[in-house]
Write a structure and sequence with these properties.
- By secondary structure, the protein is α+β, with helices and mostly antiparallel strands.
- The chain has one domain: Alpha-Beta Complex (Peptide Deformylase).
- 19% of the residues lie in helices and 35% in strands.
- The strands form two sheets. The chain has a five-stranded antiparallel sheet, sandwiched between helices. The chain has a three-stranded antiparallel sheet with strand order 4-5-8.
- It is globular.
- It starts with 25 loop residues before the first helix and ends in a 7-residue tail after the last strand.
- The structure holds nickel (II) ion (NI).
Length: 154
């Protein structure tokens, strides 16, 4: 078990476009395992590789229905719309209302390179979109309609 440092807003790695994962080896599995530990300790719902300084296209998430490891993810369907409060482990104590699809379908590879599909609605859809954005160097603030004032968080 290893906890990795979560990169904060302002670090240039968060603004870069990540490259695809091509090797499904022990190095990848260690990264995924470390990211799981890091996400648990940080008490978040999603963590993308660039947030731990790795510029590869993968993220992990758990919105309460089990861990998903998404490698080379691609959103293949977007439906509807939702406006909800969103935050990011790389932007501590900052929250804003974003415009996201209500439902998405994602195609991704697992840690062995096998393709799978997952459908998410509500929070799960938001999370898939948020983490996918990280792989293109986009923070949630770029999607924010309105940032929340600290007084609204109490
Ligand atoms: Ni984030």
């Amino acid at each position: 078990m290893a906890i990795r440092n979560i990169v904060k807003e302002g670090d240039e790695v968060l603004a870069k476009v990540c490259r695809p994962v091509t090797e499904f080896n022990e190095r990848l599995w260690t990264l995924l395992d470390d990211m799981k530990d890091t996400l648990e300790v940080a008490d978040g719902v999603g963590l993308a590789a660039p947030q731990v300084g790795v510029l590869r296209r993968l993220f992990i998430m758990n919105v309460g229905d089990g861990l998903i490891e998404a490698i080379n993810p691609e959103i293949v369907l977007r439906e509807g719309e939702q406006r909800e409060v969103e935050g990011c482990l790389s932007c501590p104590n900052e929250f804003g209302i974003t415009d996201r699809p209500m439902k998405v379908r994602m195609k991704a590879q697992d840690r062995h390179g096998n393709w799978f599909y997952v459908t998410g609605e509500g929070l799960k859809a938001r999370c898939i979109c948020h983490e996918s954005d990280h792989l293109d160097g986009v923070l949630f603030k770029a999607r924010v309609i309105r940032m929340l004032d600290p007084s609204e968080l109490a």
